[in-house]
Design goal:
The structure is a homodimer. By secondary structure, the first copy, chain A, is mostly helical. Chain A has helices at about 20-25, 45-55, 65-100, 105-120, 135-155, 165-175, 180, 190-210, and strands spanning about 35, 40. Chains A, B: GO terms for molecular function: glutathione transferase activity.
């Protein structure tokens, strides 16, 4: 979006993290890390704010302080809620496939539905989250939507449907058709394979326990 | 810090949240909420950024983009780690006082020690977090330090000591002596009473289970 040249370096997170990752993000040992002028910046939202403050073309955050606050609020909401939800969905599905406990699955699906409803409500009358152009929340949300779909496929759940969440699904389509996004989405087959392995690991954990 | 007049309104969170809170923060139903020009802003870090962008005197965040990124990184670290740690400390203490399970307590204390060590390391050669003046991280950390102390007192744990964390303790003292902070800290006795009740509730939960 900023037309800035960068070098992308893939990190192999399992089983061993690279010395470069441990050096640049010793506190969390997580990706993503942006290195600029030799100095590391960590956490997706912090990286986006840094990019926006360093390269001023095509602003990611809105200019108005209140709209900026709303963008940060929604980005935080997604950042905090979604990974937990995905883990819950994966565990609930594994649990159900190994034991007769069905209530956990229903509970996780209901939680997912509530989170998606909140997002669906936020999209009423808007083309993208936070307005008419691709911005901060969209960049955070996109991966969410993409993750949820890929994981649904990997574990076999079916929560995010067009019937129930028409605005979210329409937005996801429009967003993914933006050229800059299209060119930079992670490859779906690799993503899917990764989560299939994760789901299998969780399932064998519950099988042993059962 | 901004010399802006404001009206402070206390929220009674238990047992019933006020209609004003539910109206202004329907997503999380949490405090704090800042209302400016009739519009609500939620989440501590989002509120601080909004205040800094709206009133430009005495900047809370540093001017340099990299220093801003570091301030946001540490603020997020604290925001995400500390409440969970406090809850763990409270549960571990209650669990130990009701049953013979001592390992949980030792584990929670060790986790607390690690988190405090990370903060202690960050303070080497600095008067405040992120530099020489009270800023973003300090405003987020202060409540952390204050919370941990008050909760230690309420549950009887002893993790944050001067012997082990001299820099953190010295910083806490200097910070709390700043006039603007001194005048705005929540009353310690009220805070302490609140957490004593919480600790008692957790203890009676474990007693019933034991």
């Amino acid at each position: 979006m900023k037309s800035v040249k960068y070098e992308y370096s893939e990190e192999d997170m399992f089983p061993n993290k690279s010395p470069a990752l441990l050096k640049h993000n010793p506190v969390h040992k997580k990706v993503p890390v942006l290195i600029h002028n030799g100095k590391p910046i960590m956490e997706s939202n912090v990286i986006l704010e840094y990019i926006d403050e360093t390269w001023k073309d095509n602003l990611i955050l809105p200019r108005d302080p209140y709209e900026r606050a709303m963008a940060r609020f929604w980005a935080k909401f997604l950042d905090e809620k979604v990974i937990i939800l995905i883990l819950k969905l994966m565990h609930a599905n594994s649990l159900e496939s190994c034991t007769s406990i069905g209530a956990e699955r229903e509970k996780a699906h209901e939680e997912a539905r509530q989170l998606l409803s909140t997002l669906e409500g936020e999209l009423k009358g808007k083309k993208f989250f936070g307005g008419e152009t691709v911005g901060f929340v969209n960049l955070m949300v996109d991966f969410v939507e993409y993750w949820v779909r890929v994981i649904q496929e990997a574990v076999g759940a079916n929560v995010l449907t067009e019937g129930e969440f028409p605005l979210l699904c329409k937005w996801a389509e429009e967003f993914q058709n933006c050229l800059v996004i299209k060119e930079n989405l992670p490859p779906k087959d690799k993503f899917l394979a990764f989560f299939k392995v994760q789901a299998e690991m969780i399932t064998s954990f519950y099988k042993e326990k059962a």
